[in-house]
Amino acid sequence: KQEVTQIPAALSVPEGENLVLNCSFTDSAIYNLQWFRQDPGKGLTSLLLIQSSQREQTSGRLNASLDKSSGRSTLYIAASQPGDSATYLCAVRGSSNTGKLIFGQGTTLQVKP
Amino acid sequence: EAGVVQSPRYKIIEKKQPVAFWCNPISGHNTLYWYRQNLGQGPELLIRYENEEAVDDSQLPKDRFSAERLKGVDSTLKIQPAELGDSAVYLCASSHSGNTDTQYFGPGTRLTVL
Fold it and tell me: Measured between alpha carbons, how far is A91 from A96 in angstroms, rounded to an integer?
């Protein structure tokens, strides 16, 4: 059974810092991995999607990497801003390609001005 | 383009009462998902529809939960009777197809059972 873990559960940094969020999964047979952002009281917004054949994806100040063999992904946020404060969730889709996403519990980020 | 619409946004009920949640997916999206998110946790899939057909309902507690997607568009998730442990945020998502497409999430319905 696939399990997804995110560490740390919460993180507080001063504005301008570069930071890394971690995601690990127990079964390396995945189809893809996604990073989502969730603001309080709102749904999830997809940030980056990495296919199993890819090593990383970039969007603006965000860079996500995938090491399938070790069961790890990182989300790198450069020059953090207060507007980046949110909960970040990673989710993996199994290789059976059923569409089912398995989510981690999330990392809640606070960027202080 | 309008996103996934859910209603109500908040619902407070007493235990043993019934409750229903409604979801309108993005136009043209064939696949619809219902997730439950407990406080401090990631969402967990309850049921997935491909058009009108429920293709994965293995995590749906069928003794008290039911769902339908008439005409392959809107969907309703029902709980009867509700229990204290059902307090959570219920998220609806949709995608163009069920395989590789990104899932787009609605804002969710926050259910509190007293």
Answer: 15
pLDDT digits (tens, 9 = 90+) for B54-111: 988 988 999 999 999 988 899 999 999 999 999 999 999 999 876 667 889 999 999 9
Distances in whole angstroms, Cα of residue B56 to Cα of each of A87, B35, B91, B110? 27, 12, 16, 23
- Alpha-carbon distance of A4 to A104, in angstroms, equals 5
CA nearest to A69, candidates A101, A108, A24: A24
A57-78 in b/e form (b: 16+ CB < 10 A) is beeeebbbbbebeebebbbebe
CB–CB contacts below 8 A, A to B: 59
- Residue numbers of A between 80 and 109 with CB closer than 8 Å to B: 89, 91, 97-101, 103-106
Contact B44, B59 (CB under 8 A): yes
- At position A75, the amino acid (one-letter code) is L
